[in-house]
Specification:
The chain has four helices and seven strands. By secondary structure, the chain is α+β, with helices and mostly antiparallel strands.
Length: 158
């Protein structure tokens, strides 16, 4: 099955902080195992699930670790367990929030919104004026999340 993706953009980035209290920090290399497991769990049975296994998740996390802007990316914990994360990457001089991942058992609790808001607040504080996101078409939860935060679809991702 061929999936298509759309690009979303926001400019200017509003300065807002999440309304909930979260235990967060920027990602570090020692998060690798927890992030790989969470990536696999968070995508399982979603439109973005391509049947990946844990080895595939490690490859993805390792690739992200070579590209993410850690100062704008966040990992969320509950009782020392990683439950969500949002990374910021730069593509063609534009900052993108990618991916946004929440543990399957913790979805629908505002964690995705809160982690994206943390990324947005850190980007705005750094004076970055525009941010993007790439969302798989049909990923209703992500489309609603980003639209609700003020992102606008600007076309197919190429």
């Amino acid at each position: 099955m061929t999936r298509t993706r759309s690009e979303y953009r926001m400019s200017p980035i509003p300065v807002a902080t999440p309304q909930c209290s979260l235990q967060t920090r920027h990602p570090v290399d020692t998060d690798r195992d927890a992030l790989a497991a969470l990536l696999l769990d968070g995508y399982r049975n979603t439109i973005d699930d391509e049947g990946e296994d844990l080895d595939d998740a490690y490859v993805a996390i390792d690739e992200y670790f070579t590209r993410i802007e850690r100062r704008y990316s966040f990992v969320v914990f509950e009782q020392d367990i990683v439950v969500a994360f949002s990374f910021v990457v730069v593509v063609n001089e534009t900052h993108y929030i990618d991916p946004v991942v929440v543990a399957s058992a913790r979805k629908q609790r505002g964690l995705a919104r809160a982690t994206v808001q943390l990324c947005l607040a850190s980007l705005a504080a750094a004076g970055i004026a525009e941010v993007g996101a790439v969302i798989t078409d049909g990923n209703i939860a992500s489309e609603r999340l980003f639209a609700g935060l003020g992102f606008r679809r600007c076309g197919e991702w190429e």
